[in-house]
Amino acid sequence: MPDFSELSDFLRSRRAALTPEEIGLPRLAERRRVPGLRREEVALAAGLSVTHYTRLEQGRAQQVSDSVLDAIARTLRLTPDEYGHLMDLARPEPAASRRPPAPRAARADEGVRLLIDSFTDTPALVLDRRNDVLAWNAMGRLLLASHLDPDAPDHPARRPNLTRMLFLDDRTRALYPRWQEEAQLAVASLRLVAGRHPQDKRLAELVGELTVGSEEFARRWAKHPVRTCVAGTKELDHPLVGFLELSFQSLLVPGPSDQRVIAYTARVGSGSEAGLRLLAATLLTDPRSCSTGERSPRVPQR
Length: 302
Prior knowledge:
The chain is an alpha+beta fold. It is built from 13 helices and 5 strands.
């Protein structure tokens, strides 16, 4: 029988974040024992019976129609990402149709490796759905993990994971001046993946490790944030070249492996573009300096 505990927790977290006024209901005068909406208020606003909604939130409703899920999503003011997450949790993939998990020693496709290696001035990485780094080019390593061995992605036992590094590696944390925002986005993205792949044991192990190892991760994870992020801007305080404001783009690699390429670029003519050029020059002139942690002269920002 499918486990609907994640669905239960998700629905409770979303109704706890709303007030009756926000969904068009009057607030009663009596003292409320729980934050946010009560179950009966969600049911009323969604046009459902209290019994039906309660069974759903308690994980006891095995068959839920699209119309019911749509009504709940509207009532709880779910974003498109949250709505997709709701559908993933309410309609788990049958065991017979699940794809086998990716092998533990998964590697990036050789053609993709050659592709990112051709980006001599552009930092790029190949990630799996868990944010394990399967490959990086020289600039990608230098940008995000200059303190790690270049061949670390090739060894499963010490393969970098960007989410683990963000929460458990002090050097990675220092790289992000807006760490709180970065951490929230990382947790929200991981939640989305966990909802799509509830049988991924390695993903569950990663979540368990982070929950035990980081109170900040555990606190954010318990709030069930959900958000996808395939493009955007990141600010970095790099130990070699200083402040960088970079755009990133995530591109899915065709095939069943759920691998993706992430590349980082800077606005033409900006100080961040000059910073990337200096980073590339550092790599070309003295590769050993990439792991010293010493700062190169800062690039003036425009």
